């Protein structure tokens, strides 16, 4: 039995298989996930697990070189925007309109759905390297 880190076997595998420049999406409960990418659905009930809890655990195990956010996040969910950005000091942040963000998710290796009900609580992680 695994005793630490991410215990969900699908999520653990997805992170382990993610290579440099691959995209992983961490989403709220409402973001449409394209059929052509893998879906790791962690949602249980409204708000659980929280988006930030999922994101914090993912980035403990994944090297991230850049993040991508929808432009609308800062205006519509400013608290969430600040929380997300605070987790990535020194990491470049790209923003794009939400409609383009949704299109960009089609390029992702997988999407990890949380139970978050905060609008625009979504981020695309661009995988980095550890050296």
Automatic annotation (TrEMBL):
Q: Provide an example Pfam family for this protein.
A: RbsD_FucU
Q: In which pathway does it act?
A: Carbohydrate metabolism; D-ribose degradation; D-ribose 5-phosphate from beta-D-ribopyranose: step 1/2
Provide the E.C. number(s) assigned to this enzyme: 5.4.99.62
The active site is formed by 20
Q: Which UniProt keywords apply?
A: Carbohydrate metabolism, Cytoplasm, Isomerase
Enumerate the residues binding substrate. 28, 98, 120-122
Question: What reaction is this protein's catalytic activity?
Answer: beta-D-ribopyranose = beta-D-ribofuranose
GO biological process terms, alphabetically, are:
D-ribose catabolic process
The coiled-coil regions, if any, are none
Q: What's this protein's family per the entry?
A: Belongs to the RbsD / FucU family. RbsD subfamily.
Function according to Swiss-Prot or TrEMBL: Catalyzes the interconversion of beta-pyran and beta-furan forms of D-ribose.
- What is its quaternary makeup? Homodecamer.
Name of the protein in its database record: D-ribose pyranase
From which source organism is this entry? Collibacillus ludicampi
Q: What is the lineage of its organism?
A: Bacteria, Bacillati, Bacillota, Bacilli, Bacillales
**What gene is this protein translated from?**
rbsD
């Amino acid at each position: 039995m695994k005793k630490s880190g991410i215990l969900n076997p699908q999520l653990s595998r997805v992170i382990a298989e993610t290579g440099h420049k691959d995209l992983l999406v961490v989403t709220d409960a409402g973001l449409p996930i394209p059929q052509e990418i893998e879906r790791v659905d962690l949602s249980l009930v409204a708000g659980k697990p929280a988006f930030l809890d999922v994101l914090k655990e993912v980035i403990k195990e994944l090297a991230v070189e850049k993040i991508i956010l929808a432009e609308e996040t800062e205006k519509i969910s400013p608290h969430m925007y600040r929380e997300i950005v605070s987790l990535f000091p020194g990491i470049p942040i790209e923003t794009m309109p939400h409609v383009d963000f949704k299109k960009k998710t089609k390029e992702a290796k997988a999407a990890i759905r949380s139970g978050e009900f905060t609008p625009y609580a979504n981020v695309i992680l661009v995988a980095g390297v550890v050296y």
